[in-house]
Fold 7-carboxy-7-deazaguanine synthase.
Amino acid sequence: MLKVVEMFYSIQGEGTQVGVPSIFIRLYGCNLSCSFCDEELHKGAYEELSFDAVLERIKAYPSMNVIITGGEPSIYDLNGFIDFLQAHMYAVSVETNGYNFSNIASANWITYSPKDWNHIAKHGYDEVKFIVSKDSDVSKLLDFKSYKPLFIQPQNNAHTPNQENLAFCIAFVKANPRFILSVQLHKFLGVE
């Protein structure tokens, strides 16, 4: 059984897969309490659903791309669920803070968004997304080396962009072009 907060169909607004029509499955719970969290739903009500019940609901959408998000999905062992979706021809991406990469290892794509920049994992993911504000100590990011795509994403407001943080991030990636700007396109477009 999965603790599902919500399922919805939209476009991916972040990272390498920006613009891809995707089915989002938001799971309950997180191991952190970040002050800048822009998604409080993972702390509220949820339904306990079987894999089959989730499949029946997502079949209503035309996309075959699923993004599991939260909260923090890797607090659960999701490999069986990911394998189940893949057996039904879904490509499965997971967004994680890196709590437990082994719990999501079956995913087709893993977006890692570390919150502790002093301890950034070296393996277990396909791209890295750093959430940055104008007050962030980005010197720690400059020391991090990886051949994976490295995204800088402005710390935004809950449903709208934060223009000051956006300006800071634009200047940062222009000065450090090995980083890529990720703007949470859905917030600019006003979609979920």
In short: Helices lie at 51-58, 79-87, 139-143, 163-175, 185-189. The longest helix spans residues 163-175.
